[in-house]
Target: Outer membrane efflux protein
Amino acid sequence: MSPRHASGSVLALLLMVNLTASSTRAASLLPLTLQEVLDSTRERHPGVAAARQGLATADAELLSAEGGFDTLVKAKGTYVPFSYYPHERLDAAIEQPTPLLGTRLFAGYRLGRGDFPVYYGGYETLSDGELRAGLEIPLWRNGTLDKRRASLSQARLRREIAGFTFTGERIELQRQAAYHYWDWVAAGQQLRIAHDQYELAAARHDQLARRAEAGDIPRIEHTENERVLLERDADRIAARRALEKAALKLSLSLRDAQGEPYVVPASRLPDGLPVPETALEDSLDAWLERALRGRPELRELTLQRDVLQVDAALARNQAAPAVDLGLSVARDVGTGPANLRPTEFQASLTLDIPLQARAARGQRRAAEAKRAAVEAKTRLARDKIATEVRDAVSALRAAHERVGLARNAADVARRLARAEFTRFEQGATHLLVVNQREQAAADAELKEVKALMDYHHAVVDLLAATATIEPVSP
Model:
């Protein structure tokens, strides 16, 4: 590469880095949105990472259950050099359980050489051994269901349960994150109100001093303003501390690219709390339907009931007689006695009848009792969710009404404060009354901020209660 090309590449790289850094700085100066907080919570919150391990555990348990259908290899060798019947034997087999009606496939190889007593004549094979293959089919017990298939079915259900558990924990973390966000925005507005009140007193402090020196007003008016200035400065410090505390709480949900808490600066505060034009339009029935359809707790309980149904079905199955059909074929290869040359077909029927089956009956009763308990919990969970949704809708409507009243009250209080100050300038009132009017206006503005914060909290609660929490950023 020529020096000119090299310098051009370096220049392009530096330009790219500068552009990237500029875009990052520009993004860091933009107002923080709820969308950004929720995205950070979903992607980088340690609580989400911990909850995700539940999915990994369920995946591992599912893999373990699938291991019930692993191919099994067995082999055994016997060598008897010192005996009246010296001989050697080798027996190897491959078994494959299948989920198809509990059928088990097998194939094997057997070799027997040497001298065998008459009662062990079945050990003898031709010179190259015996090949065999076959299958076993359960006709009654373990036909429709067995322990392997039950374990696999339950592991799959538990994997789904883990998914809904993860969803529920993530919803709760997002709800907390949204709460912290609106608390932080409200704290910023409270600091603004405290700062504005301080600036009012500070702006007229020198003017009042000059008027008192000139004898236009009593000196006590200037002293009254000095008292208020100190008080409002203390309020401003307290509001600043409240904002810092809110930012620290928010940092638990807001993470940087490395997953570390990000303490957002006050420069990223939005202009204010969004003012709702109307309450959410959906009816209570629509919210209830959405909650009962989407809440992960109900889905978890339904799946837990299915797990117990598998337990009960397996217990009923284990109480039934076992009737197993076996089919196999075997053929010796090589040289040796003529009676070992023909191909051998074999069919067998095994019968196993549990006369009392107390273990299976006890397991079935336990599973049915647990399932009844889960059904009762499901009814209770549905009632709680319905109550939670009704309460959230009620809180949202009340908060919406309070916002309108608080805005009107704050507007009236501000007009009264301005009018009282005009009267003071005309000598018709005292500064003490002006300060009282201004404090009343500040209190009304704080109540307006509180009403707006409660409204947005109510929105978050309703969206979380219906499992539909979505970003509602200003």
Notes: Residues 147-214 form the longest helix (68 residues). Residues 290 and 396 are 17 Å apart (CA to CA). Confidence is low (pLDDT under 50) at residues 1-26.
